[in-house]
Model the fold of this input.
Amino acid sequence: MDTISVNKFRDNLKSVVEQVVSRHEPLKVTRRAGEAFVVMSADDWEREQETLHVLQSKSLMQQIADSLETHTRGQGYKPTEEQMNEITGI
Done:
């Protein structure tokens, strides 16, 4: 994660925010006399929240583990070519 001072962040706010949003990379902003903070796009923040929700859910993690196990054994669900094209957007 890149780091920038709060002064540089303030002076270049528009370009820094555009960079954070376009690169999908958070930016750590440091303050001389206080705690640092992180700037990230709203879309990235929402994805992070969804990931945390899944990781904190025992039932969802169990479903993922079960799915990986059946996939490893070659016994999982196999979508048709048409379904795969729809999933991948082809």
